Automatic annotation (TrEMBL):
Gene this chain is encoded by: sucA
Protein known as: 2-oxoglutarate dehydrogenase E1 component
GO CC, any one term: cytosol
Gene Ontology BP, a term: tricarboxylic acid cycle
UniProt entry keywords in alphabetical sequence: Oxidoreductase, Thiamine pyrophosphate
Alphabetical list of InterPro entries matching this protein: 2oxoglutarate_DH_E1, DH_E1, KGD_C_sf, ODO-1/KGD_C, THDP-binding, Transketolase-like_Pyr-bd
């Protein structure tokens, strides 16, 4: 919701509560509504008296009061049009959505009848007039607010923003005017949009394309965004949209070569054959290009998207934020602009839309305003608006962030183009979101093979009779003398010939390169192989850097009064560096962040409560206890940039945002932290469609890190499991890295490894809770320096000769320490416990080597805290067996020790949790009390 420097109160002493947003209006503030000022009776009477004096007329008090009353009623009429005029606008091209003129938009409602309609009334400069008759007022107001453009903006609290919009909409001199060349350009763009869809329909009969048919006015309007954006300082636009009209935008706005799209329609790939990946349907693909208007070049990218409507929104905003940082544009937000294109049903129905609106003015997430363009087909698949929402417009959610909304009749391409021009100007001036709601129709069904008459027979009867946009607009231009029939015929035939030529060229088209490692990704590449070459990276740091970071993390500025508990935390940290022992999770993390920053990388951490840490462990931000000014130790380091943000209470939107940021900036370690791991459920669409599959579908690498607190500690079903099994089920084709780490130093190394390798893969970390302070989960100083590195498997804490190991317990995560403590308490000297710190890619080679060394091994057990149908068991069972065979232990298979299958991730009863935990530990170690009842299947499981 605007430039960040204006959105939040500065650090330091403040008036009012510390949580107050500077954009929130204050009661009794200095800014008064201009309408209230106009209704000031004293000012009105003075103006009327002055006017009368000039005319040398004497008015008695009764006449003055009557004149003031008429002025007040006239101003009320004006205000009502500003608030509700859009309700009488001519918006529906089909004429199906008809509305009666609201009574309060008539002059009679305000007492202007008969001769009073033509009596001059003082309006004090409103509409650019000092005096006007009520009849004249209504004529002007209806032209301004009730034509093909309806404006909603009086919900905006900022006076200057309202005045800006009024200045461009109100007055007898206000109309939508384009030059002759401009009108021809608009018509040409509409013809291209229509003929392109017709061409696809003829050449690829019955093939889904989700055409723009009926909404072609969007094509010249989006070109206006590029043209006028460039004139106002925009140098890059990032687009996001679903499938409706996407192919048209790719071709006619993004300038993706027609031959490439035709090649894809014929079943060809957009990328070379040797690149790999699964590919995706053509109406999900993205592209990037440069277009030039008036000598100004603007770079544009359309972000790939899945069929999950609106999922791309957060990704686009995150990418824009990263690009603004790259262009040093985070303060002004002038050079990089997001444009999101929505469907009407999705805009009203998908919660992610609001989540992304909620990010629009938040520190760390603002992009300086987004232009939202709604293709309002007045239908969602087969559902009419009256059954799909409880509001007159799909755009009403935008009022929550005080975004102005322009409702436009899609059969008037000049009006739609004007709206986009106005939107760009507003966004560039105020750095806030703005919405364009283009009312149009969908000429065919949901897809070109769908029959819409089943559910909307009246609408589609009207559509079959309705002329296309080009015909309506061409008739208008012919009547104006701008074009003739020859112009239309020539423009159409020239474009169709171009399409024919491109169609033939598409038959022999062959992609010669992929574009996924260009720009900021230069120097990065796919990993050479999944097992060996990817490990050749040094992640330890020099002792001098280690000591320097220790001083940064333990030095409190003189002007900072810290919380006494934080003081003890800092003192404990200082002792770690002095003794070289006892480094905990939070300190290891800070060392990783700090060392990467010192090496020139960026670090961006966001999530709910990430500054302090959900478990009060991180303390990345120190807050003064007297005036609440903030100090971020790692942000004082040179070379790179460290950022930590407490996000809005959103998972879906924020995770999409961070994925988008990481997709644009591979030089920044981007981490999203769930408050508890199970909260990732709320962002599952982003995980499934982007994090896990984005590289395979769209050749888009990404190095995003997910920190998901996970561990069974009796906190109930909602705060035990990050659903490890779901991430492992998504693993294939070397797409992810999934780790369940138990050693602070290993966490340090895996974070540094993420940035120091010459490729990027998403990293999923089952982050700890109790291990944050567990006395056994500590590291020594020498595990961060020298030749130390990330260990995919971690051997036992107890030294047991390999030839004496009879029973091996394999596990991952916190349960390792429960096993170790019980094993040592029982004095078992032939049971070894080995942790798999990385579950995918599975560490087959080091595990095989470890197994081969155990010459007298008799039994291998996999132990996990999660129920049998959850956790890692179903994923690791086969790879462990493969490793056993490779180690020469043919025929040996791992057995399972853990909880029974369960519909709920965990019990919410502390006593039952403790009993289950003790039983699974005993079972894994072969101790009494570990017996578990066999699982019996319900009769329904057998198909009964």
């Amino acid at each position: 919701m605007g430039n960040e420097s204006h959105d939040f109160l500065p650090d330091g002493p403040q008036q009012g509560p510390s949580w107050q947003n500077a954009r929130w209006p204050l009661v009794g503030g200095a800014d008064e509504d201009e309408f209230t000022q106009a209704l000031d009776p004293t000012a009105m009477q003075l103006a009327i008296k002055q006017s009368a004096a000039k005319a040398e007329k004497a008015l008695d008090e009764t006449a003055i009061a009557q004149a003031a009353d008429e002025s007040i009623r006239a101003m009320l009429l004006i205000r009502t049009y500003r608030v509700r005029g859009h309700l009488a606008a001519d918006l529906d091209p089909l004429g199906l959505s008809t509305r009666d003129l609201p009574a309060d938009l008539t002059p009679e409602y305000y007492g202007f009848v008969g001769a009073a309609l033509d009596k001059p009334v003082y309006v004090g400069g409103a509409l650019g007039l000092e005096w006007s008759t009520p009849r004249q007022l209504v004529q002007i107001l209806r032209a301004n607010y009730c034509g093909k453009v309806g404006l909603e903006y009086m919900h905006i609290s900022d006076v200057e923003e309202r005045r800006f919009l009024q200045d461009r909409m109100e007055g007898a001199d206000k109309s939508i005017d384009f030059t002759v060349l401009g009108k021809k350009a608009i018509l040409s763009a509409v013809i291209r949009g229509e003929q392109y869809e017709k061409f696809l329909g003829k050449k690829y009969v019955g093939t889904k394309r989700f055409g723009l048919d009926g909404g072609e006015s969007m094509i010249p309007a989006l070109e206006a965004v590029i043209k006028y954006g460039g004139q106002l300082g925009v140098r890059e636009i990032v687009y996001g949209m679903a499938h409706r009209g996407r192919l048209n935008v790719l071709a006619n706005v993004m300038a993706k070569p027609y031959r490439v799209i035709f090649h894809e329609f014929s079943g060809g790939s957009a990328n070379p054959d040797d690149v790999g990946g699964s590919g995706d349907v053509k109406y999900h693909l993205g592209t990037s290009t440069d277009r030039e208007f008036d000598g100004i070049s603007v770079h544009m990218s359309l972000v790939p998207n899945p069929s999950h409507l609106e999922t791309v929104d957060g990704v686009v905003l995150g990418k824009v934020r990263a690009q603004q940082a790259f262009h040093d544009d985070l303060d002004k937000h002038e050079q990089v602009m997001p444009v999101l294109i929505h469907g009407d049903a999705a805009f009203a129905g998908q919660g992610i839309v609001w989540e992304c609106f909620g990010l629009s003015g938040v520190r760390g997430y603002s992009t300086g305003g987004c232009i939202h363009f709604i293709i309002n087909n007045q239908i969602g698949f087969t559902t009419s608006p009256k059954f799909a929402r409880n509001s007159p417009y799909p755009s009403d959610v935008a009022k929550g962030v005080q975004a102005p909304i322009l409702h436009i009749n899609g059969d008037d391409p000049e009006a739609v183009t004007f709206a986009c021009k106005l939107a760009v100007e507003y966004r560039q001036m105020f750095k806030r979101d703005i919405v364009i709601d283009m009312w149009c129709y969908r000429r065919f069904g949901h897809n070109e093979g769908d029959e819409p008459g089943f559910t909307q027979p009246l609408m589609y009867d009207r559509i079959r009779q309705h002329p296309p946009v080009s015909a309506i607009y061409a008739d208008r231009l012919k009547a104006e003398g701008v074009i003739d029939d020859d112009y239309i015929a020539q423009t159409t035939s020239d474009f169709v010939k171009l399409l024919d030529d491109e169609f033939e060229a598409g038959k022999n088209y062959k992609a010669n390169e992929a574009d996924w490692f260009g720009g900021r990704w230069s120097g990065l590449h796919k990993p050479a192989d999944p097992e060996t070459a990817r490990r050749n990276v040094a992640t330890a740091i020099e002792p001098k850097l280690f000591e320097s970071l220790g001083r940064t993390l333990t030095t409190v500025p003189d002007d900072l009064t810290i919380h006494k508990t934080l003081g003890r935390v800092i003192e404990a940290k200082r002792k770690m560096f002095e003794d070289g022992e006892g480094f905990d999770w939070a300190t290891a993390e800070a060392l990783a962040f700090g060392s990467l920053t010192m090496e020139g990388f960026g670090v961006r951490l966001s999530g709910q409560d990430s500054g302090r840490g959900t478990f009060s462990q991180r303390h990345a931000i120190w807050i003064d206890q007297k005036d609440e000014h903030k100090y971020v130790p790692l942000a004082t380091l040179p070379h790179g940039k460290f950022e930590v943000y407490d996000s809005t209470l959103s998972e879906y939107g924020v995770l999409g945002f961070e994925y988008g940021f990481a997709s644009a900036d591979p030089k920044t370690l981007v981490l999203w932290e769930a408050q508890f791991g199970d909260f990732a459920n709320g962002a599952q669409i982003v995980i499934d469609q982007y994090v896990a599959a984005g590289e395979a579908k769209w050749l888009r690498a990404n190095g995003l890190v997910l920190l998901l607190p996970h561990g069974y500690e009796g906190q109930g079903p909602e705060h035990s499991s990050a659903r490890l099994e779901r991430f492992l089920q998504l693993c294939a084709d070397d797409n992810l890295q999934v780790c369940n780490i138990t050693v602070p130093a290993n966490y340090f190394h895996v974070l540094r490894r993420q940035m120091l390798r010459p490729f990027r893969k998403p990293l999923i970390i089952m982050a700890p809770k109790s291990l944050l302070r567990h006395p056994m989960a500590k590291s020594a100083a020498d595990e961060f320096v020298g030749d130390s590195h990330f260990r995919r498997i971690v051997s036992d804490t107890k030294t047991i000769p390999d030839d004496k190991i009879r029973r091996l317990v394999l596990c991952s995560g916190k349960v390792a320490y429960d096993l170790i403590e019980k094993r040592d308490a029982e004095g078992l000297d032939d049971v070894s416990i080995v942790r798999l710190e990385q579950l995918y890619p599975f560490p087959g080679k080091p595990l095989t080597e470890r197994l081969a060394a155990m010459t007298n091994l008799e039994e291998v057990v996999w132990c996990q805290e999660e129920p049998r149908n959850n956790g890692a068991w179903f994923f690791v069972e086969h790879p462990i067996e493969v490793a056993l065979n490779a180690a020469g232990k043919t025929g040996m298979r791992p057995s399972y020790a853990g909880r029974l299958p369960s519909a709920s991730p965990a019990t919410g009863l502390a006593k039952r949790h403790a009993q289950q935990q003790q039983a699974l530990v005993n079972h894994a170690l072969g101790l009494p009390g570990g017996e578990q009842p066999k699982h019996s299947f319900h009769p329904a499981d057998n198909g009964e």
